[in-house]
Write a structure and sequence with these properties.
The chain is an alpha+beta fold and 75 residues long. It contains 2 helices and 3 strands. The protein has one domain. 27% of the residues lie in helices and 11% in strands. It is elongated and about 45 Å long.
């Protein structure tokens, strides 16, 4: 880890993924729209889950975080 590695810090809104009764963990009750799917996109694009808590992700290069942003779905 270098001092100038870019970080992505996330404060998850749990209510946003549990806003439809009967569909816990799904954003707007839509299959596949989960917190885990976003975490997987971050990791697949070079993010390292620093504390294993899915809140702080470190990237080795600035372009990696740019690529991660581009890979995010348009929910």
């Amino acid at each position: 880890m270098a001092v100038d590695d870019p970080l992505l810090i996330i404060q998850w809104n749990e209510r946003g993924f549990n806003n439809v009764p009967g569909a816990p963990g799904l954003r707007d009750g839509v299959a596949g729209q989960t917190r885990d799917s976003l975490i997987n996109i971050i990791i697949a694009n070079g993010g390292v889950d620093e504390l294993g808590m899915h809140t702080i992700f470190r990237f080795r290069h600035g372009q990696d975080i740019v690529n991660c942003d581009g890979a995010m779905p348009n929910w």
